[in-house]
Amino acid sequence: MPIIEPENHLVRELRGVHLFHSPFSNCSQRTRLILAEKNIPWESHVIDLMKFEHLTPDYQGIHPKGVVPALVHDGTVVIESHDIIQYLDDHFPGPKLMPTTHHEKSLVFPWMELGDDLQISIKTLTYEKLFRDKFRPRKRNFPIMPPTNEIQIWSTFIAAI
């Protein structure tokens, strides 16, 4: 379980549960789902990926890979969503959400792995839906050649070989 020693020493002083996350990150979403299911009070620290806050020295001092989420519980830093989920299930009361027997794990873990495998597709669809209008196509800074000129250039090139 990736419990790490943070380079950002300020997080060691945090008490309670603090989640550093992004609203649109599916790894953050699954972590927030577990917090809600177990009814764990927590403090939100939104990391704005569009402003590259995940690449700041302050955040990378919490999560060295610069990805979300990261959980701080009474100064202990846990990274990676699967490990955060397991940590929350192990350390807090409420319904057990993670499997304990080998048979249960064989049923649940393939679904968790599928979520990881689909992460790029989920992210692509999410960002396409949310941010498509914010990014307009760039204006071309070069002339577009009429098709007849292009055919003539290719014909000349092929004849030269």
Automatic annotation (TrEMBL):
> What is the superkingdom listed in this entry's lineage?
Bacteria
An example Gene Ontology cellular component term from the record?
cytoplasm
The cross-references to SUPFAM superfamilies, in alphabetical order and at most eight, read: Thioredoxin-like (SSF52833)
Q: Which InterPro entries match?
A: Glutathione_S-Trfase, Glutathione_S-Trfase_N, GST_Omega/HSP26, Thioredoxin-like_sf
Positions the record marks as coiled coil are: none
Q: Where is the GST N-terminal domain?
A: 15-96
* Family matches, as Pfam families: GST_N_3
Name under which the protein is recorded? GST N-terminal domain-containing protein
Give the species this sequence originates from: Iodidimonas gelatinilytica
